[in-house]
Amino acid sequence: MISYTEDLIANIIATNFDSLDKETVERAKWRILDSVGVIIAGANGVGNDALLKLVKKWGGPEESTILVHGGKALAQNVAMMNSLMMRSFDFEAIEAEGENKTSSPAHISGSTVPTALAMAEKQAASGKDMIAALVLGDDVACRIAAASGFDVYGGWDNTGTVNAFGATAIAGKMLNLNQRQMRDAFGIVLNQLGGTMENVNDKAMTFKLPIALAARNGIFAAELAQQGFHGPKDALFGNKGYFAQYTKNADTRNLTRDLGKKFFADCVIKPYASCRATHPSIDAVMKIVTSQEISIDDIEKIIIHVTPRTLKGFVGQPFVIGETPQVDAAFSIRYTAACAILRKSVRPEHFTLEAITDPGVNTLLDKMELVDTLPPNEYQTAEVDIIMKGGEKYHARTDVPKGDIFKNPMTQEEIISKYKLNVAYSKTISEQKAEEALRMLLSLEELDDIRKLTGLLC
Hints:
Number of strands: 9
Largest sheet: 4 strands, mixed
Helix content: 40-55%
Low-confidence stretches: none
Strand content: 5-15%
Distance between the termini: 45 Å
Structural class: alpha+beta
Radius of gyration: 22 Å
Mean pLDDT: 97
């Protein structure tokens, strides 16, 4: 199977911006725009200050810009820092696209976009070069993710596994690695894969660490390979390679199908700042509260219907405020549904301790029940019943939650609005700089030097 790995690497080396179709380029630009806004919103997320202090303490050559906070550091450390900020509110693009517009659980952009930004700045690259590198890294990560059979209720967190290969591909492309060097880089990063879903089970702030480490590790692996350091011959299919070590139900038959013709990537841009598994319930609630005038005092009962798997999983558990309230809330169907009823939105500003402990939220939580009445074979579905004291009953169902670019997309206007709302929430970037950055992001392929963009974002 070594030919599969070599084929992936050969495609990374041979493909440039002119090889990309218009739709692929446009999708990449929307992901980058969304990612920049999410990084800005998450700049001061819980725990970020700890890593920021370390990155600044470590110092080193000023290769890339720490977004929002300013200052420069090693590209690998900057990518890690920016990635951590991007993951802070679980608001980044998700879902690895596969064959025939299918998808599998993933958060690839959270590693790949910060890696591409940091490396493009380090190399003084153009917008075209950055887009090409990002598209290739996303494609590699998506193809591996789709083949992996990943289960969010298993053990590994794939933000720390497949993302690392994507980040390595981006860094290697930016450094113009040859076939042997890229093979070595994949072998080097194989030794740095990791991440556990226990972070999410425990609602710990470390839930956002694997995605950030993947960004750092990809750059390190590419730079070390550039210096002549060798790795295993086949990082993916070796006897103890990625698929042997990290997957249980892998299906690699389509790994290289249409390679160089189709470029896969995250296919969901999130409308809500919470775990995707909470979005079906949020959407169902939103259908009701945006079409009916409902006072929370007049609600008798709220019944949320989910699958047995969802009810047993981390988002279906009773809402309890622990050491990291924002994480507790972001991974809770109960809290996010209550938030949607109360505020008709679920955004970063709704995850402060004050917002989480709002008496209105507690009122709604006391009236809420989750039941596993949906068929076990359904995926990302939910139904909500809101029963009023006067006897009225409002019902809504979600078959595909908002954000899926193929089945229920956010509009371009909604994506731009999300960016602007994130900037306004953060209060760290001036409106003038944010607007100038927006213009650059919307025409990124025309930018001759990424440093002009990153200079605006701090």
